[in-house]
Structure formats: C-alpha cells, structure tokens
Amino acid sequence: MNITILGTGSVGQALAKKLLTLDNNITIGTRDVEATLTKTELDGFGNPPISKMLTENPKIQLRSFKDSVAGADLVILAVSGRVAIDVLASSGELPAGMTIIDTTNPLDFSNGFPPSLFTESTTSLAEQIQEKFPHLNIVKCFNTMSNAIMINPQILDESSNIFVAGNDEKSRDLVKSLIFEMGWSVGEIVDLGDITAARGLEMIMPLWLRIFQSRGDANFNFKIAE
Ligand SMILES: NC(=O)c1ccc[n+]([C@@H]2O[C@H](COP(=O)([O-])OP(=O)(O)OC[C@H]3O[C@@H](n4cnc5c(N)ncnc54)[C@H](OP(=O)(O)O)[C@@H]3O)[C@@H](O)[C@H]2O)c1
Questions:
Q1: Which DSSP state fits 22?
Q2: Which of 11, 65, 108, 140 to mutate to test the pocket of ligand 1 (most atoms within 8 A of CB)?
C-alpha cells in the first residue's frame, strides 16, 4: 500500500520503519520539510530527529502535510493530540471512505508531567476527529502502548493486547490485517466496535502514565486476563 504517516515523532518514525519492511511505500508528513530536515536535537524523550531515520531509510519520503497524502491508500495520524484535527484539515483532499488510523492521545501538558486529558469523559479525540471529517473512516489503534511495542509486540515476555475501534467494519478489518502483518496475533487483537470505544482507550492514558512513572520505563502493555 501507499501509506502516509502524518507526524515525524517517535510514533511516526517507528511505524514508518516497520511498514517499510512489509513492502509498503511510505511517505511522512511534516509542517516544513526543510526545517524538519535540519533539526538535530533529540526530542523530550531522547529520541533522535527524523533526519537520521530518513538517511538510514532512503526509500521513505518526507513531504509537507499538504503534499504527503497524494496517492495514499491509508493515512496514519501520529501528531500531538492538540493539533490532530488541524493537521488533518491542513492535509490535502482525502477521498470519501479512506481509512485513517488515529494513534493520538488528548494529552494536556499545560500543568507539566504527567499530563491530564483535554477531552471530557463523554467524548474522545477520535470521536471529535470523526465528527469533523464524516467522510473519512477513523480507526483508533496503537494509542495504548509505547511505539516500541506497537511495532514489535514480541519484545515483551508474554502476549498483550492491541485495541481497534471505528464505525466502519471494513476499515477496522483493514487495520486488523495490517497489525496482524506487523506481528500481532489474532488472539491479541481486540475489536471494540464503534468509535465511542475510543473514550476508554484514551482515558486509560492516565493509568498508563502512572505505571510508566512507577516503573521508570515504557516496556509494558495492557493484557486482558481470562
Ligand atoms: N510516543 C509514543 O510512544 C506514543 C505512544 C502512543 C500514542 N502516542 C501518541 O501519538 C501521537 C504522536 O506522538 P509522538 O511522540 O510520535 O509525537 P509528538 O511529539 O506528540 O508529535 C510530533 C508531531 O506533531 C506535529 N506538531 C506538533 N506541534 C504542531 C503544531 N503546532 N502544528 C502542526 N503540527 C504540530 C509535529 O510536526 P513537525 O513534524 O512539523 O515537527 C510532529 O510531526 C501523540 O498524539 C501521542 O500522544 C505516542
């Protein structure tokens, strides 16, 4: 597939590298291509700038948000939650029915770390995105774990779960087949149904952050014990 990833952070970089190994054509979107390529500093979590990853993976294209979606079969939204709607709005025209994977979390860092959520419990960022773009099929996925586990669930000692939520069944199926190819087994993939399930997937973030603080690392994931 031609996959466009909107976002140059650690999620965008991790998904790009993994999906490239699965023979997809990858384009990454950013605000300003030149400015992004000249960044040399590590991000707030010590991750290297995208220029290093692009040098190591020359088949991955970097384009402006607007230009990056041309010819895409699938778009992955991987930007700061605060700007998720604006970034999707600033991207080029997307055809009706296109699947958009939403990896974002509605994190509010205005009072420092750990962040709170900027959404109310009766909605979710994914639902707000879906409402804003009713012609697109938003599928929430990946937001409940670190990017290292998204692309390599086997780094954990035992199996864990990945969740999928979205209104369109075919789009959920597309995402489920993609994550299966990425290494998630059928039993680990949990289809939660329509996009309102994103409320719980986003509201679990305060718990994830507290576990992260308590452990001091992000090498864990949620698992449904039966
Ligand atoms: N980090 C993780 O492991 C992880 C795990 C699960 C979910 N998530 C969620 O996934 C999303 C991506 O996380 P991340 O850590 O990879 O990256 P991030 O630092 O949250 O976001 C980086 C991206 O946001 C864009 N951005 C920032 N401010 C902007 C603005 N004012 N206008 C337009 N674009 C702006 C940046 O654009 P430029 O390219 O132009 O700089 C960049 O592409 C977030 O919503 C995060 O909560 C992260």
A1: T
A2: 11
Report H helices in the chain: 10-21, 33-38, 50-56, 65-68, 84-90, 125-132, 147-151, 169-181, 198-203, 205-215
Average predicted confidence (pLDDT) for the chain: 97
Looking at residue 206, its pLDDT comes to 97
> Which of 76, 172, 80, 95 lies closest to 125 in space, CA to CA?
80
Q: From CA 62, how far away is CA 65, in angstroms rounded?
A: 9
* Residue at 144: amino acid letter: T
Tokens of 159: 């199996």
d(CA 7, ligand 1 centre) in Å: 6
Q: Say if residue 49 is preceded by a cis peptide, omega within 30 of 0.
A: no
Nearest ligand 1 atom to alpha carbon 8:
43
Indicate whether residue 91 lines ligand 1 (CB < 6 A): no
| Residues forming beta bridges with residue 163, ordered by sequence position | 190
Q: Which residue is closest in CA terms to ligand 1's atom 9?
A: 104
Which pTM value belongs to this model? Answer: 0.98
Q: Which residues of the chain have pLDDT under 50?
A: none
Burial class (CB within 10 angstroms; exposed 0-12, middle 13-18, buried 19+) of 9 = middle
